[in-house]
Amino acid sequence: MSRQFWLGLLLLAACAFAVNVDSLPVWDPALLVRGDSFVVNPDTALRTDSLETHGYKTVQVTVGDGGTQVDQELRLSIQGRLTDSVYIDALLSDVGRRAGDQTTATLREVDQIYFRVESPHYFLHLGDLTWVDTSMGFTGMSRASLGVMGGVRGDFGGGYTQVRGVVGTDEVGHFTRTFNGVSGQQQGYSLDAYGSFIAVVPESETVWLNGVRLVRGRDYLVNYAGGMLDFKGAVLPSFDDEIRVEYDAYEGDNIYTLKGAHASYHHPNLYLDVSGFRLENDVERLKRGVWTDDDYALLKKDRGEDFNRDDTLPPLNRPDRTERMNARVRLQHNRQFYGDFEMALNRRDSNMVASRVDGPEGRAFRWYVTSDSTRDLLHFPLAMSVYGNRVEQGYDILQYPGSDLDWNLYNLRDSWDLAYGDSSFLNDDLLHDEFAMRSRFSREWFGHAQWGYRRNAGEDWNSSRVELGIEHRNRNALGELSLIRVASEQESEMERYQGTASAEYLLGMVRPFGRGDLRFTKITLDEIEDEVVYGKSSSGVGIFFDRGEVRESIGGRMAKRRGDTYGDDWADSLWASTWLQEANYNSRYFTLSHLLQYERVRRDSSDSENSWLSNLDSRFGGEELGWQGNVSYRLGLTEEQIYTAVYKAVAPGTGDVRYDSLTSSYIEGVDNGDFVYEGMGRNDSVGAVLSSDAAFSTELRFNPGLALGIRDGFLRDVTFGVSYEGEGSDTTGRRIYFPPVNRSQLHRTTSGRMEVGGLVDWQHPSGVSLAYKPGASFDKKLSSISYYETSYSHEFDAGYRINLDHFVGATLLIQENELSAMQEWNWDIYDGTLRYRFDFLQGFYVQPLGRYRKGEGSDDTGSELGEFESDLWETALRVGYDKQKKVNAFANFSVVQVESDGDVIPYQVMAGYSDGRTYRFEFSLSVDLNDYLSMGCHYILRFGDAEENIFQKLSTEARAYF
Question: Which of 65, 185, 361, 917 is deepest in the core (most CB within 10 A)?
Fold first, then answer.
């Protein structure tokens, strides 16, 4: 069969191969009338761009006392015209990141390398590739691989013939996950059923919401390094919305080989397509690198039963093979008659090395014929169409679905009252027949009637559906009304009567819209009869103007039931209401983006459950006006996974984050850290909880001189500022609508923080500057211990620029801290700095510095042993050279003396210095050799009687831009 399969495919492909082909939608043949149904590759000879190279290469090596950490990134892109008719596209991306143990929400870049050259008559693609074939109704293929892909499009066949093929290998598995949305949650859906870390192949995913395919980048984003799905814009899944995701993920112990081809002949009146692929495990490579001799022997003895392994190794995957071949014919006459016929063959071997185990084999047939393919019935006021398909048991209709999603599970449930259990009932011979009539009553009024019948070969289950509808449409408005009856028999007998209606204004400043769906269903199971009424509706209005739009809508869902199971009286089983609000505005001095969704749900006799999500961002004012600011507001109530900060362990001494066991906290910006910050990640050790969240931040700046036109006096040169940033989260059932603004509110939340700051900045033209920055911060962290930190600060900064070469300044910081973690601490800090800077020889400078820092406090023991007092003296000299866009270098030598009399003090009090004397030398060099190449290094040396030993850390970095 395998030889016949590829021989038949080769003979059919000899007629035509395609570089880039889009198929006609089965249910929208009106594309033929609009004249854009056949995608024609743009002639590369018309390209005006030249060959351009862009990208960068970064190598960073950090050497510390505990080891060496190497990080590198490479991204090189070459695009443009090589000759008048040859176009080049190449990419090399190597980010050098290893997968961690947590699912982080920050990494989106992955390794890729490919080279592609194309012309009006051929293309060749080498390296990382994605084989995409969407020309068929039964079969669709999108798979990432590493190999060769090519195609030709010649003048033979009247210039309508194209062909392409692929050979590749990969370590990729194809996965499908179907789940429901969570009311109020727009981000953080894990593609893995267990919430584990997975590495998703870039752009391999396909996302459906209620059977509608979403658009990548516009409707959703996927974090490929981790496997997290975030929805965007107004896409807000609710509790009864079905999300279905198909994606490829890397699997090191599952090596596949892909061979595929697609050929086509696309005449304006005739489309001929043939395609096929073989996807099989590479047995020889698996024998060399994955399987042991015992594994291979066990696989050869396989009889189709479960494996019983004597060890505790991971499950042993059977090597499988899947082969598919499709042929499709589409034709039309006079832009009226349209026919679509397709045949598909599927063959699978579930264990390639076992003689006793084979796999299913089956065929599928599909047809669609209509007497008028135009949407508005331009040729005759009446059109008839026939649709049908036959799918044999061995053809897996749910695997590798094509453009005709006729057996989609969501569609079967929503439109045919089937598939309320699992999908096992589709493992049978499947039949579907449908007849439809469309009519044109007048220029703007249309009607349709449709009858369909689904069943399996033995009539163990079946479903019939009848629909009558009327439609009114013109350039200003669109409206539709349909009456539907569905009768199905599967686990139970169901009879449904349904009415749907929708209306929408398409043009104008004010555009109302609305839609509704009402269903009455009678369910009979083992002589037990129940009745269910279900309805959903939404209506609203949109207001559109030059710089923005506003949309307001309300909706609801309800379900009632009665009968032998629920009693004679109607009882509520679902009552839900939704309010959705969107607003966008953009001008020079004011921008606004706002989204709000509120949902209230009551199931059976339980209490109501609320959920909401709100995002608001606004910017106003401008620097030239003398006042400016921004506001950001987030509000949420949903049941979701907890997110926490993720720190990745690196070679000891090479990081910039240190864990302080005394205060149970991570401290950033240190010399000899053992961690680096990776971003926010899911805490999968904690289950999903109902969380009420709120965040708000604002920053305002006001300059009276610019705003009021003041030309003299203090107000001319002063700027006032205020800022607030807060967030809060509560998982105890309490609702919060605004983050905490005082300490008592923060104490009542599960976790949160708030920071308040002020600014008075006076810059006199004579060179004198004074600034005062009061601040307060409060932090309560969600952890196994009760972590709460409070800090009040006053910072004074004064400076005087004597002339262009001389500057003297002073800074005073007064800070009061309270920390409750493993134990309670409180301390006060007084930190004063004097500095002087002398610039000379057009870029060189010398900056001596003197600093005194005093810290005193105590722990919660109340004894004298718990009290501490420490002093820090620092003298430093920095010599540097700074030439803009060329060189930035400095050498800084400092001597730090700390006296604490051996007291135990928190790490933050003395800025990480211990009792005794520390000599610290720091050297930094950054050189931009030209616009494309830069190099740098950073070296730190610490020694003295305050240090355990001599500490050194060297970081080197080279970056090349293309």
Answer: 185
